[in-house]
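User: structure tokens for this one?
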Amino acid sequence: PVQFYTAIFNFKNHLFADKRVRQAIALLLQRRLIADKIFCGRARLISGPYWRGKAGNDPAIKPRRHDPRRAAALFAAAGWKDTDGDGVLDKGGKRFSFSYLRFAESSVQRRLLPILREQFRKAGLEMKIETISWTAGLTRMKQHRFDMTDLNWHYYFEQDLYQIYHSSQCAAGSNYGCYQNPEVDRLLVQIRSTVDAKARHALERKLHRLLHDDPPGIYLFNVGDVTLISRRFAGARPVATEELQLEVTHLDALVDTLLPMRDAVEVRAPEAARQRMVEALQAALRRHGGEGGR
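Assistant:
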């Protein structure tokens, strides 16, 4: 599977009600820089919830580029300006201040959120990081008691986004931010009931365009899995569902190195152990041509 990372807004917080504000926030992020720092070049920027190889993805919709000037114009159009000179945007006496829910077990968030906070700070947004366990965080998301957070979902050959974005799923589904858009609701129902693949994909492309214009969150990047295959399994190949998948074959030495260190990938493991595993993988990729048989 290929993962796609999305920062989600909680629409019960009126800071995010105006789509111009959400578009502006997306323009503040230097996502290419973030992706390279966190995923060592394995991540690709995305513009929506469909992977690029799927017919439901609209290739004309590009990821939003880093554009702080355009972001400032959108904030101003929505009424957000720094009127008191304290470095934080305000509107009607309310400061643009919010908290970002971080899960203590997430090594990705540990590296991601300080970068987001700094990029937001430069634009006049005050972001506070609240760290709790995944279990407690999931409860909070289900109760819609957060401002922003991020999740990573998985791409499949057929994406059913009903549970994530339909307004009815705010109560008991995975629409944790309570995103509501009547046209999105209509399309999600129509996509589910359309058997003809061509017609369904056309509807999905329309949904992609709509979610880009009225974003429920910030589509960050997708990340393919790294597959390690020992010589003992001759002829075995992973199923490539997306060009991001990276296949590393016949690396017995690497497998022998990594297997004893498999606990190091757990977030509770010491950082030094996890770093040794990353370095071992990078060294193996360099020895085998850098691309590892991509």
